[in-house]
């Protein structure tokens, strides 16, 4: 009965449109916090664009309507009406499926909203294709995994590629430096500066610098191989595995 009284009173005073929404939302929120869920529902349903038609001169935007339906769902849920809560949350989801809260502070959507979000993400993952994942991983390592729902794995491949690339860049600079050092070797260093191997044989400064160049080249080539292996593994992984499962979801 109280619910219909609120609707009648607010309808009599008239709600002009979208610009008056915050005032009535605040009134509804006060009643929600007081535990008067019927009163809160009455205020929200009386807003044009929720249970009534939205005025043509002052239409309510989709985000505002989504927030109102979200709050309405929280009110219905708190009142123990799960069927209407389901309806309100689905209306909000249809208007804005990226919404994270309504106008109310600390309103509890229970498991309803998260189940809707998970359901949409699961549907999106099922629509993903191996070829699309492979093309993404071909262009940007880890992107294919992220596309298929394996976010942590995608970040891991991306991190491995970036980390290896950084080390490769540093080693390539060392290679360039060792080559410059080798090219600067003069005849006097070649003749006068000699070193002894562990087996007792002797070698010159030129040979020492040549060894340094070869060692740097070996490290660079090894890192290029690691980089290629990560890239191939990333490509293979994006094609072989099915979309990531969402885990347990709640059915209404």
What does this structure look like?
With 252 residues, the chain is mainly α. The chain folds into 2 domains: 109 residues, Alpha Horseshoe (Serine Threonine Protein Phosphatase 5, Tetratricopeptide repeat), CATH 1.25.40; 111 residues. The chain has 11 helices and 2 strands; from the N terminus they run H-H-H-H-H-H-H-H-H-H-E-E-H. A two-stranded antiparallel sheet has the order 1-2. A hairpin with a 5-residue loop joins strand 1 and strand 2. The protein is elongated.
Classify the helix fraction into a percent range.
Answer: 55-70%
- Give the DSSP E fraction (strand runs of 2 or more residues): under 5%
Our count of domains comes out at 2
Summed up, the helix count is: 11
Low-confidence stretches: 1-20, 247-252
Structural class: mainly alpha
Q: Numbering strands along the chain, what is their spatial order in the largest sheet?
A: 1-2
Mean pLDDT: 76
The quaternary organization reads as single chain
Q: What value does the Rg take, in angstroms?
A: 33 Å
Terminal CA distance: 28 Å
- Name the helix and strand elements from N-terminus to C-terminus, one letter apiece: HHHHHHHHHHEEH
| Total beta strands | 2
Query: Largest sheet, described in full?
Result: 2 strands, antiparallel
Shape summary: elongated
